[in-house]
């Protein structure tokens, strides 16, 4: 009888202890969150960040410029939580895009028939043209006046193509600022490059004795490049670009960098 009572009490104590341990274990297990953190959605973008005022590094080595602010605004409108911008040489941007390193490229890239064979462009987002930069007193009026002169251009840009289509040789540089600095030092007689970049360089270097004229090579339009076949991203990009142009955000960014209202893009 004593042993039976002892066994009963012992069994009851053990059962109670196990229940207590089980209860303790359940309180230490964190309850699943009813509001999980949203997954980060990143737009990977390539750009040659050496082309002020479109893309360049500020004094804190942070990418800034018209293109940078535009792609950030577009990314936010498309629902991306982050726009990750990586710099690369201009002539390497399209191969890297094709290889899947980037989802988009924004780098003051002119829409051309040849490039459109390799990438899918967004709708036009910027009107530009070519300018001839020269030392004051050179008195060049057109591309024809540059025959026999040393002409600086950025590699694989429409400035290079415009000059070479006239049958003239070019001195090629990795960036337009490199070509402009060669003009200052006397390494070239003229530079042919996108008008906003030439005018920005002149404004930033007022003592350099540089002047410029329209090269009269026709209008050019910039586009955001995406991988061929990526129609889903292109559709979203164009919808957001249209929205920003209609709601005033595009003009706000344009006016910040160019001090005038954006022209109508045909």
UniProtKB/TrEMBL annotation:
Q: Which UniProt keywords apply?
A: Signal
Solute-binding protein family 3/N-terminal domain span: 42-261
Q: Does the keyword Mitochondrion apply?
A: no
> What is one Pfam family matched by this protein?
SBP_bac_3
Q: Where is the signal peptide?
A: 1-22
Q: Which GO terms describe its cellular component?
A: cell envelope; membrane
Q: Where is the Ionotropic glutamate receptor C-terminal domain?
A: 42-260
CDD domains given in the database record: PBP2_Arg_Lys_His
Coarse class of the protein's main subcellular location:
other
Q: Which GO terms describe its molecular function?
A: ligand-gated monoatomic ion channel activity
The cellular location(s) given in this protein's UniProt record come to:
Cell envelope
Stored InterPro entries: Iontro_rcpt_C, SBP_3_CS, Solute-binding_3/MltF_N
Q: Which PANTHER family match?
A: ARGININE-BINDING EXTRACELLULAR PROTEIN ARTP, MEMBRANE-BOUND LYTIC MUREIN TRANSGLYCOSYLASE F
Q: Which family does it belong to?
A: Belongs to the bacterial solute-binding protein 3 family.
> Mind telling me what this protein is named?
Polar amino acid transport system substrate-binding protein
């Amino acid at each position: 009888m004593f042993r039976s009572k002892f066994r009963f009490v012992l069994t009851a104590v053990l059962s109670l202890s196990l229940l207590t341990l089980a209860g303790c274990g359940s309180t230490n297990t964190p309850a699943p969150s009813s509001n999980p953190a949203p997954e980060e959605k990143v737009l990977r973008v390539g750009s040659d960040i050496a082309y002020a005022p479109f893309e360049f590094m500020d004094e804190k080595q942070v990418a800034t410029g018209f293109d940078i602010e535009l792609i950030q605004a577009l990314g936010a409108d498309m629902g991306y939580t982050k726009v990750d911008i990586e710099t690369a040489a201009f002539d390497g941007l399209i191969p890297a895009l094709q290889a899947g390193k980037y989802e988009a490229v924004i780098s003051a890239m002119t829409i051309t028939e040849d490039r459109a064979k390799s990438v899918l462009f967004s709708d036009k987002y910027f009107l530009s043209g070519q300018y001839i930069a020269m030392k004051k007193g050179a008195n060049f009026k057109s591309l024809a006046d540059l025959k026999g002169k040393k002409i600086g251009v950025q590699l694989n840009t429409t400035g290079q193509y415009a000059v070479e289509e006239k049958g003239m040789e070019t001195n090629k540089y990795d960036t337009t600022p490199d070509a402009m600095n060669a003009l200052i030092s006397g390494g070239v007689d003229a530079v042919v490059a996108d008008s906003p970049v030439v005018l920005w360089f002149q404004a930033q270097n007022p003592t350099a004795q540089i002047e410029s004229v329209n090269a009269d090579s026709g209008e050019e339009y910039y586009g955001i490049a995406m991988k061929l076949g990526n129609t889903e991203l292109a559709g979203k990009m164009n919808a957001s670009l249209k929205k920003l142009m209609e709601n005033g955000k595009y003009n706000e960014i344009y006016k910040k960098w160019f001090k005038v209202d954006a022209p109508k893009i045909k």
